[in-house]
TrEMBL record:
It comes from the Bacteria. The keyword Metal-binding applies. It is an enzyme of class 6 (ligase). Gene3D superfamilies: NagB/RpiA/CoA transferase-like (3.40.50.10420). Belongs to the 5-formyltetrahydrofolate cyclo-ligase family. It catalyses: (6S)-5-formyl-5,6,7,8-tetrahydrofolate + ATP = (6R)-5,10-methenyltetrahydrofolate + ADP + phosphate. GO terms for molecular function: 5-formyltetrahydrofolate cyclo-ligase activity; ATP binding; metal ion binding. Pfam families: 5-FTHF_cyc-lig. ATP binds at K3, K4, E5, I6, R7, R132, V133, G134, Y135, G136, K137, G138, F139, Y140. It comes from Avrilella dinanensis. This is 5-formyltetrahydrofolate cyclo-ligase.
């Protein structure tokens, strides 16, 4: 399937999820991450979910990260150039939804892309090679190109992988792993 077909399929599937299903599967995803060997790093980038899009609720992962005393980084998007600006998430970070209902920090201590060790990535779908499909704006591709080569890229999904995404471009950056409620897929 191509990206357009996959976007349509997974937006439809997510719309059908109840709020309880989103919460149960999000908790299961957080618990699955505990089975991986990603916890020996210090700085983790995480997305704050767009609830209206029924994205994975990362609150459970945030609890794990803070419980393990990790540095947690979140981003603010700039739609004028499709970039992301990162800040350290602290107790004093103010968060507001932007015009697209994306929860974002209003302020905070800036963090450079090169400082990030692990990135939890929102997505609509992915394939068995780790190629991913998001909403199509390219924010994460732009962000990932600026990161260190050894940064660990983890997609969070309610669903198992598609067989193949047929229209992958050279600038598309694949995942290292994907975590679902039932399984971890390692693409390395």
């Amino acid at each position: 399937m191509n990206k357009k077909e996959i976007r349509t399929k997974y937006k439809t599937l997510r719309k059908q999820l109840s709020a309880d299903e989103v919460e149960e599967m999000s908790l299961a995803i957080a618990n699955q991450t505990l089975k991986s060997n990603i916890w020996n790093h210090q700085t983790y980038h995480i997305f704050l979910p767009i609830a209206e899009q029924k994205e994975v609720n990362t609150d459970y992962l945030l609890q794990i990260l803070f419980g393990k005393d990790k540095n947690v980084v979140i981003s603010r998007t700039d739609f004028s150039n499709l970039s992301m600006h990162h800040v350290l998430l602290t107790d004093t970070t103010t968060i507001r939804k932007n015009d697209y209902n994306i929860p974002e920090p209003i302020d905070g201590f800036p963090v450079d892309d090169q400082q990030i060790d692990v990135i939890f990535i929102p997505l609509l779908a992915y394939d068995k090679s780790g190629n991913r499909v998001g909403y199509g704006k390219g924010f994460y591709d732009n962000f990932l190109q600026k990161c260190r080569k050894d940064v660990i890229k983890i997609g969070l999904s309610f669903y198992p992988p598609e067989e193949e995404i047929t229209d992958i471009r050279p600038e598309d950056i694949p995942l290292d792993m994907a975590v679902t409620p039932n399984e971890i897929f390692d693409f390395n």
